[in-house]
Design a protein that fits this description.
23% helix, 5-stranded mixed beta sheet, 22% strand, globular, alpha/beta
Length: 189
Amino acid sequence: MNTIGAVVMAAGSSIRFGSDKRLYDDGNGPILQQTLSHVLALNLPVCVVLRIQDQRAVGELLGRHTGHPGLACYFVSHSERGIGHSLQAFFRQPPAWDGAMIFLADMPWIKTDTSQLLLEHFDAEKIIAPQIAGQRGHPVLFPRQMFAELSQLRGDRGANALLQSSHGLVVEIAVEDQGVVLDVDSLPR
């Protein structure tokens, strides 16, 4: 039995958004809390990656999920260096998981069935990603063998460069879930 965990990347600075998009409420509650509801429903161990300065705002950010037994927080310094830096920091000393499904905090509309489908396709030697209409989306499921590469990332491109350089290892699963490519930045406000 494989142990797969979920990593929710929530350490961004929301500069392009203009305010803290983790707290943006689209009428269904704050975006980060919506994302956490989806991820926690998968019954995986979950780690949310936050900024070091978020330590005093955990209750506000996590809301009803604060204190959830399946949820841990990881605080990253210098998150302004980009998502690649935050991934690097987290995967320097990763949990003892066989795989990590990486979610972005600002993408709460992914269907649970989609994430379950990706989990069903877990392969200890492949990266599993959803794809809709030829576009790769999120979340992305990485096997443990890729954790060392994740710990070398830098900048604001996240794992995109790793996905491109590992194209032979990437298995794209066709889905009919627009949530895999929609983030809060694409919403009209």
